[in-house]
Amino acid sequence: MTASYRPSCDKNWGLSGGGGRPGKKRKQGAHCESVTVPKEDVKKSEDHNGTFDSNRKIWRCVRFLSPSMFHCSRFIRTFTSAASRRTTSWDPTVSLKLDHPTLIILEKCGTRKDFKQILTQMFRIHLIFQTFPMSRLLQFSALTNPENLDIAVVLFSHFTPNPNLYIYNTMLRALSFSSNQSIAYYQSMLYSCIFPDEHSLLALLRFPRSSSEGKQIHTHVIVTGLCSNLYLQNSLMKMYLENQEMKYAREIFQHVQRRDIASCNIMITGLARNGHNFEALKLFHNMVVSGLEPDQYTIVGLLLCCGQINDSFKVKSIHAWTVRRTPADNWGIILCNALLDMYAKCGEMDIALRIFEGLKEKDAFSWNTMIARFSDHGNLDLAHRLFDQMPNKDLVSCNSLLSGYAQSKNWNSAIKVFGDMIAYNVRPDKLSIVTLVCSAADLGLLYEGRVLHGWLYKNNIELDAFMASALIDMYCKCGSVDRAIMIFNKIPQRDVAAWTAMISGLACHGRGAKAAELFYKMQEDGIIPNSLTFIAVLTACSHAGLVNDGCIIFEAIKQSYGIDHTVEHYGCLVDLLTRAGRLEEAREVVENMPMKPSRSIWGALLAACKAEGNLELAKIASRELLKLEPEEESGYVLLANLHAADGNWSYSDNVREIMKSKGVKKMAGSSVVFIDGIAHQFAASDGNHPMWEVICCILSNLNREMKLDTAHC
After folding, report:
1. Are residues 90 and 115 in the same domain?
2. Which of 172, 482, 511, 628 maximizes the CB count within 10 A of its CB?
3. Domain count, the chain
4. Known NCBIfam families for this protein (predicted)?
5. DSSP letter at 292?
6. Is 609 part of a structural domain of the chain?
């Protein structure tokens, strides 16, 4: 192949990194040896019209490809004898037609085993050393059947002494998923003084690249004179948008001379994903005015904009516009799924369900969208019904339903879904396990949590920091701190989440000094605390009464770590001061906060006023608390109890009358008891439990026996 301009072989011209042929150098003892075939051997083979000339070095390399190749089947023997009986007039240096019998069968090959047999035959007749047959081998093994990519890499590295542009482009396309490998092959191509074309650069841009790599590829596009190629311009725009380099993406888009619908779709979708929704809508308007006809991918980009701004009216407008211009029968599954997702995100579940039921074709995304959204909205009965109707249940649908039941604290249904996953041969992942562990932690189910922990060991699932953090949190919330410490000590690589979970667990159990010690040890190990870590350690100081330590840590959040104080940090500081009885300091903190105090801050101040008998400050805190949440009963009850404790019964009665006039009722306390994995909930003065009479009878008997024991004592 010739070109008007060829790059020099200067090593600085390539992308950053080393040059040379990838895979050319191999370590001692590797599976495959580098083979150099003497010219006289090749010539001798050619003189024998394709008959096999024994070469032990070649066979040693063939052994890497498959040991079974040495046991030539009847298929190979037939081909060998056929090749020996007649002389082939096919010349690879002149003809590029697939008229050689081995190449014809290669095109029809369907399995890896057959491919290895054909490869053996090509070794036998020395066809493998010709450029065109090698290009067909690489095309078949690297692209047509990518499961043979490992063989393609060996063939390229050891049996392709003079690869051409087509062969390099084939390998670049096959290895485009790997940034390091594809760039190494591209560097090898430049070192071989082979001029890249648009297919070479498109292969490099095929998968997401970092911003620095993308800019280097963009430079090569300019150097090679291909900057006006529309396909490359679209790929560069997509790359910059994925890396949030909006400036460069806009510049390329503005310099596109003949924009097509793909250019506009890439730009609209990229702007929407980066939050520039109104700019994307404006671009759509300009596109329609310029005469470009939108397709379904354009509509998907517009729907993405509406989902970002959570505007159901715009979703309906785009839906109506699409119905008016395109019959629903011509919509693709991608557009239908986008409509489903956007309506569901905007809370229009009835419309989403009507669209879903009207779909002639439903894929896994359609089912998963409906199951996940109905689970998120708490409609678990309908979500479970759709789950049962789903033809091929997958991990996404199972996890969506599992998460929905866990959020609604329905442990029995959640564990049933987990059992169904195993029955459907859907292997649970980390998210499945963590969802159940967190549900057990919220409900205080120590036994069930230990069962899940045992399931992980039974199935040889190694604990990483993510799952270990969930187990630590569960054991701490269920009161088994020692087990949590044991898991924490076994984590091979602790991240900030694991440290935070352990500190928080120790804080909740009053081990503030141990939590603070762990906080300092965490920094010694090189782990930088985050905002949640500081909330945990401040809570530990509050529960342990370490007021001075807590104040020092609070000041260090901004000064030493550069983290802005949040309302949660101020809430911890106020709780720390009020527990120590320093109400005036807590009041000063609340008055000087840069943001509005939250309900928890005023609640902590109000509870401390009750404990200290500070009625004046209690009135201020109560007034502010009721401004934030006038329908919550806690502020009214605390204030009424405070007046009653001070002997002001008339004020206490007035507060309760105000509650009654506003329709605010004090929620009855309740408790949950799990027996054999079944949750039993009890509320004060609630006789609705199906076994209420049996429970009352047993309690009466227990009460009578306790009185008898007391009388005997």
Report:
1. yes
2. 172
3. 4
4. PPR (TIGR00756)
5. P
6. yes
